[in-house]
Structures are given as C-alpha cells and as structure tokens.
Amino acid sequence: MTDRSSSAHWNQRYATADYYYGTEPNDFLREQAHRIRPSGSVLCLAEGEGRNAVFLAAQGHDVVALDSSSAGLAKAECLARERAVIIQTVLADLTAYPLGTGTWDGVVSIWCHLPADARRALHRDVVAALRPGGVFLLESYTPAQLALKTGGPQTADLLPRLDALREELDGLSFDIAIEREREIHEGRGHNGRSAVVQILATKPL
C-alpha cells in the first residue's frame, strides 16, 4: 500500500495494543533465513509491526524495516526494544524509496502486495539492489486465495502468480519457487488454509 489513504488504513489497523499479525516471524522466513549471509544487511519490505525484522536482527543481521505506516513502525521499534535488538525503521512510500545498487545481502518481502505495475518496478529494483550472493525471500498470496478468504487482499491485481514473479525477478537464480496451499496462523490477520507463492532466489556471484 503506497498512497495516503492506504497509509491511513494501515495506521488504523495497527492502532491497537496487540500485534495484528502477531510477534513471531513468518514460517517461511524462519525456515529459510539461514540462507542469508551471516551478519548481512537485510531490507524488509512493507514490514509493518516488525516481527520479521526483529527476528532477523536477533540472528545477527543489520536490518532496515521499511513501511508507509508510522503506527506499524512505532510498534516495530517497541518490539525491538522488548527483544533487546536493534533495527532501523524507515517511513517511506515503498514505490518511491531508492533501494540502491549492490546494497543488500538480503531483501525480504512477506505479504507485500502491490498493484502489478508497481510490483514489477519494485522487483526490478530488488534485483539491482542485491549484492552478488544476496538472497531475495518472498511469500505472497496468489489469486487462489480469493476463494479461501483467510487473509490478504481481496483484489486479484494485488495477488501475483509464480510465472509473473519469475519474469519480474529475471537475473536471480531460483532455489525455491513454488505455489502451494498451507496452514497459516499469524495473529488476528492470517488464519487458516492459504494459497501462497514462495520464492527463495539468489543473485549470482
């Protein structure tokens, strides 16, 4: 979400004492985080309340959490303090933030649902922003999620298919690239059988 109205939407969603998606990291990230270079620099896209960024910081990474919601990032900073780790938070429009060139050892995209044109541009920038040997890790809902209604946006344009992601991430080597159904339980926001796409891809040395 990138415009003022969507920022307001997320600020309202995160304006609660609890964490809407919980405080534990995404399962796919937890399983695959070891693939990121030790003590590497990691950018978490659309990071919200910080659960994934805080987890990565606890693994020893230098983490930047990027989001357009000030309320979400305030809670991310609070969670980091509670877990005694350091993260850097950046309040910015995801489609306008410069990712850099050869900057990151890891880029993490968990439930970062953008319109197709914006997503294509972002992923082009992700490929350029990774260092050689850098890892891109993504989990997103697919259009099949519309029938399951257990979380995620209810607009098809925001839900990518694997074949589209392969094209958008041209230049990376895919270690994991699958569409599947799995059980997801993340706070109040995601609960139940879910249709997802998972990607772990590496920039060649």
Major β-sheet, in short? 7 strands, mixed
Look at the structure and give the mean pLDDT.
Answer: 95
CATH class type: Alpha Beta
What is the multimeric organization of the chains shown?
single chain
CATH homologous superfamily (4th level) name: Vaccinia Virus protein VP39
Strand ordering within the main sheet: 3-2-1-4-5-7-6
Radius of gyration of CA atoms, rounded to a whole number = 16 Å
Number of helices: 7
The figure for the number of domains is 1
Helix fraction by DSSP (H/I, runs of at least 4) = 25-40%
Level-2 CATH architecture: 3-Layer(aba) Sandwich
Listing every helix as H and every strand as E from the N terminus to the C terminus, the arrangement reads HHEHEHEEHEHHEE
Structural class: alpha/beta
The count of β-strands is: 7
Stretches with pLDDT under 50, minimum 5 residues: none
What fraction of residues sit in β-strands? 25-35%
What labels would you give this structure?
single chain, alpha/beta, Rossmann fold, seven-stranded mixed beta sheet, 31% helix, 30% strand
